[in-house]
């Protein structure tokens, strides 16, 4: 005998159920439009090895729609998943940000950062060191919004600075305390 589905497992209704379908439809529609534009732009173009690429602006105007036409259909499933995603609570985001700020102060973080910065190369150990060096900041990005361009830039700048600059308490301590303070502010903020 099969159990009846619970309310938590039942499909979403209303606007929530339409969001993934609308996102996929828009994505595939954009891809189709890019295919039409690419075919129109390449009509009559010589496809030989000696073809001149033209100016950077012309090359970009042809290349971007062509890449979008090829890549967007493959991204449709991920886009549908993201459209159906419902963000976590503000309390969870605040706690993750506080934990990430605390991690910035640990000897483990210092070790991984030094290992990532001083090592050159590739491989499992190097990847582990670099992941360990930036895992706290990556969790901040997840908590604040993976798809937020502003947070991507902020986190990327911090990760790059930590990769290029040696550890210095005069810089690292205020950054860690600012992250912790930001997490506390997220918890205390009404919305």
Structural features:
disordered N terminus, extended, mainly alpha, 7 helices
Write a short abstract of this structure.
This protein has 191 residues and is an all-alpha fold.
Characterization of the model:
Helix content is 73%, strand content 0%. It is mainly α. It folds into two domains: 15-84; 90-188. The longest helix has 29 residues, at 56-84. It is extended.
The computed structural class is mainly alpha
Radius of gyration over all CA atoms, rounded = 23 Å
Proportion of strand residues: under 5%
* Mean pLDDT figure: 79
Number of helical regions: 7
Helical proportion?
over 70%
Please indicate the count of domains: 2
Low-pLDDT windows of residues: 1-12
* Large-scale geometry: extended
Task: Measure the end-to-end span.
Answer: 45 Å
Biggest sheet, open or closed, and with what strands and sense? none
Fold blueprint:
Blueprint: H1 15-42, H2 56-84, H3 90-103, H4 107-118, H5 124-144, H6 149-164, H7 169-188
